[in-house]
Amino acid sequence: MEPITFKPLYMERVWGGRELERVYGRTLPDPMQSFGESWEIVDRENEQSVVDHGPLAGTPLHNLWCDHCEEIFGSGYGGHPRFPILIKVLDARDDLSIQVHPPPRLAARLGGEPKTEMWFIADCDPGAKLYVGLRRGITRTDFEQAIAQGTVAKCVHTICPNPGDSIFIPSGRLHAIGAGFLIHEIQQNSDSTYRVFDWNRLGLDGKARELHVAQSLASIDFDDFEPAMDQPDGENLATCEFFKTAKKSLAAGELIGNPETDKFSIISVVQGALKSAAGRHFGCSHFLLLPRNAAPLTATENSMVLQVTLPVK
What we know:
Elements: E1 9-17, H1 19-22, E2 35-41, H2 61-67, H3 69-73, E3 85-92, E4 98-100, H4 104-110, E5 117-124, E6 130-134, H5 140-149, E7 156-159, E8 166-169, E9 175-177, E10 181-188, E11 194-197, H6 213-219, E12 236-239, E13 244-250, E14 255-256, E15 265-271, E16 274-275, E17 281-282, E18 287-290, E19 297-299, E20 303-309
Antiparallel strand pairs: 1-2, 2-3, 3-10, 4-11, 5-8, 5-10, 6-7, 6-9, 12-13, 13-20, 14-19, 15-18, 15-20, 16-17, 16-19
């Protein structure tokens, strides 16, 4: 089988911009709006990736997962009613809200879904900051006082990463992406985010965006002090029960296939270009699903890719 690609879903965000157009050459839906997110691969009730090329064109990802799971994805993935990985590109031209995702033990009670994710820094402005975890010594009492005073940002640890760096964001970790980042985000299939502070700004509708202070306080890991960007373990960037992400550097002419030939993987082209066995080309910012038993792809120039796989439980 040939690689499967999908039409991106673009999301307007108050903190977004148009880097997807400028850097990646994308055609955005509106010439005047700011788009903060491109949902590249998603299977949710109200957001659905649809195949954009080949004999499966027009088919939703959910149909592939439910009707052709073993044929396309491989065996051993039972128990997931929807495709369990969600992949986005984030264009942050302004700071995102300081937020947290609910941990598994609390998510249902709080009315949300647990969400663990990782960020790969595709590009960033010099000095751009990530807000991750708490400054050492900050207590829950300190944090609650900061909420009341509108000074939450002073409690949050900041990091200035470089392009090519990555960091794992488990459920319960306080975080925000600062202005000046282009990020590939790999995450659980979830859309539950609790905002605890939004820089006292207004949303796209001119009103203050909703905050979720009680849910955030219940979810935050108050022992998570000053985490650093992750150090890769060889090619491996992140491994958890929800996904595994590897960064691979390919020389021109080198092949890349599924790590296990009888199981699928997702490949995002960070730099360079790939070509399929049938001659289809995939340049920078292409995301593709490589079906089980698919022929390997060939790097047509020196390239860097992320390869995401789904652990079998």
